[in-house]
Each structure stands twice: as structure tokens, then as C-alpha cells.
Design goal:
Length: 263
């Protein structure tokens, strides 16, 4: 299990981002970036004070769902994915890297495990506490949409392919080599490698694959108004920095377009 996956598991278990960063030996900003990019859900945390008596703390502990027995790292990750999508097959495929038929049999079977069921139930309880999004959640979601990079979701370019007809590949009669042509391509990255929260549409048509992200301009408009009213918001510096980078890229693109004389 990677540090990024461990961080998410500990976060869902109730630990603060700072404590997770300290335990992993990572920077606070790194862990916060993982939370933002992967769309970790909002988790309500309990802050125990010295004034709370032992009986009260024990009572709250008893009210929380418990995990019976130990789970492997992969089993825990399976539970965390299942608590989000409620798809045992997809969760099993993502964690264990097996084919659909294997996952379709093994995923539901894993749900019968008492420890797995207990951990999933505990995650559901956490999810219930975090069901209502606050202003910070909305701001972070718009930040993700506004500065999403299509390159994080697809790879594209040109590649050489053999020219085909109804009988198979065409061969040059003189050289005996396959006849090639250059084509454009768009390859979508695996779903477990991207944050699907900002993807609005994926479709397959005659012209190929189409990937559409959520409306960037709408997100930028909302963020601009929000930060004008909340200049001290903790996300303001990150927003200003990324907005400047975005504006600079747009300026360079327009300058290159004008110099080329294209219309």
C-alpha cells in the first residue's frame, strides 16, 4: 500500500491531516494535495479535551462501530472503495488487478467476511456524519474543476498504424513491408488512476472517444466571487497562484496563434 493510500485510510479513520503527515514523514501540503486531488470526503472529527471524563469517552467509543479481527492492506482498501461505490466487483478489480469474471466471484464473497463487513459499516457511519458538504467542501470541489488538466485523464497524440482493408493489412509490393499511415489517437487512463469527480462526460462516437470535464469557466466565476467576499480564505493563495499560471498559458497560446497567422 502506498503512502497516499495509507493517508486516505487514516483520514477516513478520523485522524487529522497534520497527524497523518507527521506519521508518514511527509509535508502537510502534500497530504492536503492528496485529499484535494482524490476527492476525500469530509469527515467530522471529535476533539477530546481534558475536561471530558473517562466514562464519557468510553461511552462514545462503545457507540462507534468496531472492526472484528485483522484485515490486510488490500482488504481495507477494498472496503474503502466499496463504501464509496457499493460495487464489489469493481472494487475488487481495482485493488487486486484481476479480470472481471474473477472479481465478480471474489468480490461478493469477500463481503461475507465478518471483519470486512464490520469495517465497511464503520466507514458508512463516518460517511453519514459527513453527508452535508460545508463551504470548504464546495470551494475545494470548484478548485479541482477550475484547474483540472485534461492530461491527467487522457493521453493523446499521433501514432503510426498499418493500413487495413477487408482482407487484412496492405503490403507494399515493391518493398514487401506493411503500408503505414499516421493517425490521431486519444487513450483514456484507467478509472483507478484519476479523480472521476470532475469528469462530466465520456462517450464513444464515429469520431472517436470524447472526454468532457466539468465547466471550468463556471468554476472560475464562482471562485472569483467567493474570494472577493472572503479574501482571507485559506485557499486564496493557491487559487491566485494557479489562476496566474492558467492566465499565462492562455496568453502564450493566443500569442502563438497570432504569430502563426491562423484564423
Amino acid at each position: 500500500m502506498t503512502d497516499r493510500e495509507k493517508a486516505k485510510r487514516e483520514y477516513l479513520g478520523g485522524k487529522s491531516l497534520k497527524k497523518i503527515a507527521d506519521e508518514l514523514g511527509a509535508k502537510d501540503s502534500t497530504v492536503r494535495a492528496w485529499k484535494l486531488r482524490d476527492g476525500w470526503p469530509k469527515v467530522q472529527r471529535r476533539h477530546a479535551t481534558k475536561n471530558k471524563n473517562v466514562a464519557t469517552l468510553q461511552q462514545k467509543k462503545q457507540e462507534q462501530p468496531t472492526i472484528k479481527g485483522g484485515l490486510t492492506d488490500k482488504q481495507q482498501l477494498f472496503c474503502e472503495l466499496y463504501a464509496r461505490n457499493f460495487n464489489a466487483t469493481q472494487s475488487y478489480m481495482t485493488v487486486y488487478g484481476v479480470d472481471y469474471n474473477t472479481a465478480n466471484a471474489a468480490g461478493p464473497r469477500l463481503l461475507v467476511n465478518d471483519s470486512v463487513r464490520a469495517y465497511i459499516q464503520s466507514l458508512k457511519e463516518i460517511k453519514k456524519q459527513a453527508i452535508f458538504a460545508d463551504e470548504t467542501d464546495v470551494t475545494e470541489m470548484y478548485m479541482k474543476i477550475a484547474f483540472a488538466n485534461i492530461g491527467d485523464y487522457v493521453t493523446f497524440g499521433q501514432r503510426d498504424m498499418q493500413v487495413m482493408n477487408q482482407f487484412g493489412p496492405l503490403i507494399d509490393k515493391e518493398s514487401g513491408k506493411p503500408i503505414m499511415k499516421t493517425v490521431n489517437y486519444v487513450d483514456i487512463k484507467e478509472s483507478n488512476q484519476v479523480d472521476a469527480g470532475v469528469i462530466q462526460e465520456i462517450s464513444q462516437g464515429k469520431e472517436g472517444v470524447k472526454v468532457k470535464l466539468a465547466d471550468r469557466m463556471k468554476a472560475l466565476e464562482w471562485l472569483g466571487k467567493y474570494f472577493n467576499m472572503n479574501p482571507m480564505d485559506k485557499h486564496r493563495i493557491e487559487y491566485d497562484t494557479k489562476k496566474q499560471e492558467l492566465d499565462q498559458k492562455e496568453y502564450e497560446r493566443r500569442k502563438k496563434h497570432d504569430e502563426s497567422g491562423a484564423w
